[in-house]
Design a protein that fits this description.
The chain has 310 residues and is an alpha/beta fold. It has 2 domains: 135 residues, Hypothetical protein VC1899 like domain (Restriction endonuclease-like) (Rossmann fold); 160 residues, 3-Layer(aba) Sandwich (Trna Endonuclease, Chain: A, domain 1), CATH 3.40.1350. Helix content is 33%, strand content 25%. 38% of the residues are buried.
């Protein structure tokens, strides 16, 4: 089986189905705008993955349909409709119908990874396997996969250190938080800097649970500029870097009070979850209650949420 995927701005709708379906060949159809993401995915998927630069304009339904039709005439193909423009998805659907090819769609909203699989029977659309529709995807990626799919490459500097090479107060807090997450089963990386913008963006902590990932900016909450943490998260979690599906956390070793309390509305507007750990003591592991609060808050954002129809 060969899998044709339409590459959009977000890589996970392409990577997760490809990892689950394990096709003999992955063909990633991309535009000039999405070529970078397609290249990241090709590097991860490795052998058997190739790119196709769409020649037709991505909003030209007839042109895209004809081009995709030519790509799928030889071999047993399945089509992933999840990514790219709506016109490209519509064109791929038309081609799948014309050639009677099975197709899939990944639901990613509310942290779910549900793969819907369909087949054609003439003009009728039927589940590919009625007993397994949809499929809740198992854990398919590492944190390294997630980061490279979005930014290509990155450096991992670890917890923050002072000029003497030892963990400073900020690094000790990062380590305490990182250890609490690791103990709860999260995969964690510290001091992540995407290559190409490493002087502008440093992610204090990145972590993964299942197929979902989050990033965190940590602040002790003293005289440092608290708002800078929100700015870093908004930039790192933007569409052009770690994308719209990456959860963002602002973890502070104090309670927000007084004028700092006004930052709550700013965080909410940017989709950032605030976690306050006022019982933290420098150089020590998080207290059990704080560790539970941290883990529960992060899990609550990363674990799949019930369907609105439930």
């Amino acid at each position: 089986m060969k899998l044709l995927s339409l590459v959009g701005e977000q890589p996970m709708p392409i990577l997760l189905p490809a990892r689950f379906l394990q096709p003999e060949e992955n063909l990633l159809v991309c535009t000039q705008r999405t070529k970078k993401i397609a290249t990241h995915l090709q590097n991860i998927l490795g052998g058997g993955c190739r790119l196709h630069d769409l020649k037709a304009a991505p909003y030209n339904l007839q042109g895209v349909s004809e081009e995709l039709h030519r790509l799928c005439t030889a071999g047993e193909w399945m089509v992933n409709l999840t990514g790219a423009t709506k016109i490209m998805s519509l064109a791929a659907y038309r081609v799948a119908q014309q050639l009677q090819l099975p197709f899939v769609y990944l639901e990613s909203e509310n942290r779910r990874s549900l793969l819907y699989r369909y087949r054609f029977e003439g003009d009728r659309v039927l589940p590919l396997d009625p007993s397994q529709q949809p499929v809740a995807l198992p854990e398919l990626i590492t944190l390294d996969d997630y980061l490279r799919a979005h930014v290509g490459g990155y450096d991992e500097g670890g917890y923050h250190r002072g000029e003497n090479g030892r963990l400073d107060n900020g690094g000790l807090f990062e380590q305490a938080v990182g250890d609490a997450l690791k103990n709860a089963g999260f995969e964690v990386k510290a001091g992540v800097r995407p290559k190409g913008v490493r002087d502008q963006i440093e992610i204090d902590l990145a972590f993964r649970l299942g197929n979902q990932a989050g990033i965190a900016e940590l602040k002790l909450g003293g005289r440092e500029n608290l708002k800078s943490g929100l700015d870093q998260l908004a930039t790192a979690g933007g569409r052009e870097y770690l994308g719209i599906y990456t959860a963002k956390f602002w973890i502070i070793a104090r309670k927000l009070t007084g004028s700092a309390n006004s930052l709550r509305s700013l965080a909410q507007a940017r989709g950032i979850t605030i976690i306050e750990l006022p019982n933290y003591q420098a150089g020590k592991a998080l207290a059990a209650a704080d560790a539970r609060q941290l883990v529960d808050a992060v899990r609550g954002e990363l674990l799949p949420k019930p369907s609105s129809a439930a």
